[in-house]
Amino acid sequence: MRTPIIAGNWKLHMNPEQTTEFVNAVKDKLPDSDKVESLICAPAVDLDALRKAAAGSNLHIGAENCYFEDEGAFTGETSPKVLSEMGMNYVIIGHSERREYFHETDEEINKKAKAIFANNMTPILCCGESLETREANKQEEWVVGQIKADVEGLTAEQVSKLVIAYEPIWAIGTGKTASSDQAEEMCKTIRETIKDLYNEETAENVRIQYGGSVKPANVKELMAKPDIDGGLVGGASLVPDSFLALVNYQD
Ligand code: 13P
Question: Which of the listed residues 167, 208, 218, 237 should we mutate to test ligand 1's pocket, taking the one with most ligand atoms within 8 A of CB?
Fold first, then answer.
């Protein structure tokens, strides 16, 4: 059985004081981790505050990006080794904003996935098509292409632990959610791709999130779909009450 995982991606929002306040407001109201994993991925400058505030609670913690080398002359980058030493559980990689604004390639994303696993953390691998690609009805081949390139060389054991986030770019921050059927269709395709690349067991284990204007009002319907195991949430994860409504969607 796959444990559902609802994650906030704070993007470039919040400072350390706001992070501490947020965690203090939610930490005693989170579901048990074996029922639903609650996760916040925060900007690098907030991670120390995040880990201190979340200590001893059910809140899982993660970063929004990292580099693929542990150390060296790489000015301005974030070390996966240090993220792991700090107690981070997850690192988001390949978000469409990083692919678009920071020109991240599948090759770099693949290296990051390997570095994150090597440091005993779990990557949340993002994929998703643009509006133009969807209008041309090429979304499946686009997303399958991203997945194949991004998991290249990962073992079945690693992919069993991987989290994949399907985030259609046209649904991010636009208020325009993919319908639950559209989201399910792609998440199913992603699971079939993992089955083709690995095997049935790996495909059954990999957790797949949907992201793009997820909010308390639509989370239940999305989570009811058989191949959707969680949500990766931007805007609606920034306010404690809204985050709590998302992670407690089963209540
Ligand atoms: P929104 O929930 O704000 O649409 O953002 C989605 C997203 O990009 C999460 O990674």
Answer: 167
Do the beta carbons of residue 93 and residue 112 sit within 8 Å?
A: yes
Closest-lying ligand 1 atom to the alpha carbon of residue 173: 4
CB 246 within 8 Å of CB 216: yes
Nearest to 27 by CA among 250, 249, 207, 243: 243
95 is catalytic: yes
61, 51 contact by CB (below 8 A): yes
Low-confidence ranges of the chain (pLDDT < 70): none
For 172, 233, 234, the CA distances from 97, given in Å and listed in that order, are: 10, 14, 12
Q: How many residues does the chain have?
A: 251
The type of residue at 173 is G
Q: Choose among 110, 84, 97, 233: nearest CA to 162.
A: 110
Q: Is the CB of 234 under 6 A from ligand 1?
A: yes
pLDDT of residue 151: 98
